[in-house]
Amino acid sequence: MSDKNKKVYTSGSWDMFHVGHLNILEKSKKVGDYLVVGVSNDELIKEYKGIAPVIPFADRFRIIESLACVDLVVEQHILTEITQLQELEIDVVTIGDDWIGKHLDGLEWMKNQDGKEVLYMEYTPSVSSTGIKQKIINSTYEIITAQFQREIKAMEEWKRKQ
């Protein structure tokens, strides 16, 4: 395949979609002409992260599918599966630099194929799905308190009007 038609593949959970996700997708698109994005299904995420995603697979798939920089979305059952890379005729796999030094069969296969490459993309500092989840956990008391205060205020206003 010529550089004019370079196919790029990246994949992820894409749970709690944030600007860091968007950055890797946009950077991946710039590497080639056609971006294929794998969305890990719920079972795969639970298997390798030990916890189910917050956002269900169908919703995460739809979010990724709606992005202008994405040409094709596929379900990922296995992390960077060799067979899927072969069937899709992928030229380049992009992956976050947090994966440097970690083994994935598909990455190793790509590195050993003529004309194929793996590019590690810089992780967006200060944002992650885990960080967002932690912020929600840390803010739970404040969120509940603010909601109760709004409800009390609404009840008091309603009583005054009676």
Word description of this protein:
By secondary structure, this protein is an alpha/beta fold. It folds into two domains: 3-124, HUPs (Rossmann fold, 3-Layer(aba) Sandwich), CATH 3.40.50; 128-162. It is built from six helices and five strands, in the order βαβααβαβαβα. It has helices at residues 19-31, 42-49, 57-65, 82-87, 105-111, 129-161, and strands at residues 7-12, 34-40, 72-76, 92-96, 117-121. The chain has a five-stranded parallel β-sheet. It is elongated and about 80 Å long. The protein starts with 6 loop residues before the first strand and ends with a helix. The model has no long low-confidence stretch (mean pLDDT 92).
What keyword list fits this structure?
162 residues; alpha/beta; Rossmann fold; 5-stranded parallel β-sheet
Q: Helix proportion of residues, in percent?
A: 40-55%
Number of H- or I-type helical stretches: 6
- Main sheet characteristics: 5 strands, parallel
Number of domains: 2
Topology:
Blueprint: E1 7-12, H1 19-31, E2 34-40, H2 42-49, H3 57-65, E3 72-76, H4 82-87, E4 92-96, H5 105-111, E5 117-121, H6 129-161
Parallel strand pairs: 1-2, 1-4, 2-3, 4-5
